[in-house]
Specification:
mainly alpha; 4 helices; elongated
Length: about 80
């Protein structure tokens, strides 16, 4: 199987797997792809490694306060 034979969304399947949000059907599709092309397991591990580094690449940010939450805190009930 060559990369041109892969499903168009193989990148999405790998990213979804690394994020842990594949549907059961997508999991089955990925399992079938990996079984047909075992060397893709290294590519999948690379996706997981890249995802694991993402939090270190981001600057820490305070959580944004929503307008709805802010207005609730300013209501007379909270003052």
């Amino acid at each position: 199987m060559t990369r041109s034979d892969f499903p168009e969304k193989w990148h999405d399947l790998f990213a979804g797997y690394a994020l842990g949000n594949l549907t059961p059907a997508e999991q089955a599709e990925l399992a079938q792809l990996l079984q047909a092309t075992p060397d893709l397991q290294q590519t999948l591990r690379e996706y997981e490694a890249a995802l694991a580094q993402l939090p270190q690449a981001l600057d820490p940010q305070a959580p944004a306060r929503s307008e709805e939450h802010t207005s609730e805190l300013q209501s007379p009930m909270y003052l």
